[in-house]
Amino acid sequence: MSAWLQRQASSHQAQLAGTALISGLAVATTIFGVQAIRRRIAIDELKASIPNVDEEHIVETVIMKLPNYNVYSARPPNGEEDERIAKLAQRARKGDYDEELITEQLTRTSSFLTPTGLSTLRSSFVIIVGLGGVGSHCTASLARSGVSHIRVIDFDQVTLSSLNRHSVATLADVGTPKVLCVRKRLEAVVPWVQWECFNEVWRETEADRLLGHWEGGRGRRPDYVVDAIDNIDSKVALLKYCHSHGIKVISSMGAGCKGDPTRVFVGDISASVEDPLSRSTRRRLRALGVNQGIPVVYSIEKPGPGKAALLPLSDEEYAKGSVGELGVLPDFRVRILPVLGTMPAVFGLIIANYVIMEITGYPHETGGGKGREKLYDTILGQLQVMEQSLAKSDGEDVIGLKIPINRDDVGYLVDEVFRGKSVLSGIPTRLALARWRAPERGYKMDMRWNGQKTSRLRLRDLVCMTKEEAVVHEKEVLKGRKGPEDVYPPEVIALVDRRLREEEEYNRYR
């Protein structure tokens, strides 16, 4: 072995290779060392350029619209470090911030999305409506990932009880507007991000302004809107507005009373299940003509014994009367919804991830709609045949008879009113729609318009059952002229009455 080493050492080629290797290592060490020194100098220069708090300065103030119910009327007091961060952010938003530092801070995101994808994300504009647990975590993740134009909308202040789920709020932020809290805390992480803060309730009458272009109409249209509202009226109005105006939106369903993060999914609103907020939202939207096309984050976790549930108001509060006045705003919930702090974070992070994938065009898959159009068409066809049979039994000429029901109506009745099950047996397959009672004046057609034959059928006349049940029901109730009470047990009658009363309530939104 020693003899071989001596021969190699005396070899001219080996000496050249060794020299080249040593030189390469030296050059690489020098390059990396210079880069590290330059980076260190840039950071030191940036820190040194920040004025001391005792120097004369003007700190950028946030213009915000404070509603009349908001007792907070001034920017929260800042400490020395907060002042330094505010000045740094003010300068960074004006472009006085080393781009190399931003690039390095986002290097892992760039590696994942590619530089082109990151560039697209950095130029995007996202609006988040609602800055509770879900909205605050979503906002923080979007800002950290590279979204550089963010508008946040929320009327509320940070409370002590919200600290269990808020992404960035601290004890020092209690009592301050959530929009300012989020901006202030994230300025310390991503000072270059541009913010628009609206400390107000989202209202449909203000939608054009609140969801409008960046900088009051001078900038770009929003690339995405995030709905993190927990008030049903505001949520439905926001989603309907976005759907009608072609604005991309994703909505968070209920994270309260949920505890299993493995049961949270992204899918079309038409496919969301086991979620009361989703059911109410979907039903209201369907009444407004929006059946699908809105992605939502929802949990399929089922409620059960021992699990958290909506807490009731005390008897003392009910005894006082005017329970609705207990809410912070009209129509906002007044009962306590148990929330495990981790679940809103899961919802918010999933929404942020979805928005990033959508904006950058990164390949991803989500659950689609139910795809039940063929089922609805089949049920509609069977209903048409049954109406013709009933009218014919009354001596009517049924050729050309039309029924005032369409496929969307069928879907609404089957999936929303009757929960996709037979009201008689609970069976979810081979479904059909049929009149619940025989009309007192029979099945005479509406002939008010010359040449048009129309059934006098109404949505509230129909119930969902299986095809086999519908055949028996038609024979005994609709043609046999028996009352449902003569055929079915009291619990079925009560269930039908309850479903029909619900439909009357929701029908006012149609």
Structural features, described:
- The protein has a seven-stranded mixed beta sheet with strand order 3-2-1-4-5-7-6, with helices on both faces. Strands 8-10 form a two-stranded parallel sheet. It has a two-stranded antiparallel sheet with strand order 9-11.
- The longest helix has 37 residues, at 12-48.
- Helix content is 45%, strand content 9%.
- The protein has 17 helices and eleven strands.
- The chain is α/β, with parallel strands linked by helices and 510 residues long.
Structure at a glance:
By secondary structure, this protein is an alpha/beta fold. It is 45% helix and 9% strand. The protein has helices at residues 2-10, 12-48, 80-93, 99-105, 107-122, 133-145, 178-187, 207-210, 232-245, 276-287, 315-320, 342-360, 373-393, 407-417, 467-478, 484-487, 490-507; strands at 125-129, 149-153, 194-198, 224-227, 249-252, 264-268, 295-299, 401-402, 431-435, 453-454, 462-466.
